[in-house]
From TrEMBL:
It comes from Falsiroseomonas tokyonensis. InterPro entries: DUF305_CopM-like (IPR005183). It holds the Pfam family DUF305. This is DUF305 domain-containing protein. Keywords: Membrane, Transmembrane, Transmembrane helix. The chain crosses the membrane at residues 6-26, 38-59, 65-84. The keyword Transport does not apply. The keyword Transmembrane helix applies. Residues 93-153 form the DUF305 domain.
Length: 162
């Protein structure tokens, strides 16, 4: 098996993982491209690259290339982890596009959970109502901001810190 095939396998697996992250959304209209999910897919692809290369190191004759692949996977891992944790590239529209499927997951798990205690069911029903309302609000805001972007000179509000 050559290096091109190894790379194609990693690329295909990373793209599949990206798609799989959307399977637990409640509704198809809650699907939106998410930079955060893209960075997470890269993080997982880099991890998979590193682990697979360790297991298959002996199958590939070029030790320098093998170590370069290991080093490259570490760099991609570090960069994608920084992108996920910092949210440096995620603006307001991208943030909402990431939050819509995230909220949709809460709707799915709350709607489908087998809950016996009425207090817990009420909590889950409240989560469903709130998340669906927020999804609708975000979808409307995304549409509005895509038609009428916030002026670049508008000051950005500082992020909250825990």
């Amino acid at each position: 098996m050559g290096y091109a095939r190894f790379g194609a396998m990693i690329l295909a697996s990373t793209l599949v993982m990206f798609g799989l992250m959307y399977l637990n959304t409640w509704s198809v209209d809650h699907l939106a491209f998410s930079q955060t999910r893209a960075w997470m897919a890269l993080l997982m692809g880099a991890t998979m690259t590193f682990v697979m290369m360790l297991f298959m190191f002996g199958m590939y004759p070029n030790r320098r290339a093998n170590f370069a692949i290991l080093g490259g996977s570490v760099l991609v891992f570090a960069a994608s982890l920084w992108l996920v944790r910092s949210q440096a590239t995620v603006g307001q529209v991208a943030w909402m596009q990431a939050m819509i499927p995230h909220h949709s997951i809460a709707v799915l798990t709350s709607a489908r959970a087998t809950l016996r205690d009425p207090r817990v069911r009420r909590l889950a029903d409240g989560i469903i109502e709130t998340q669906l309302r927020e999804i609708a609000e975000m979808q409307a805001l995304v549409a509005d901001l895509q038609r009428n972007p916030t002026p670049a000179e508008a000051p950005a509000l500082p992020p909250r810190t825990p």
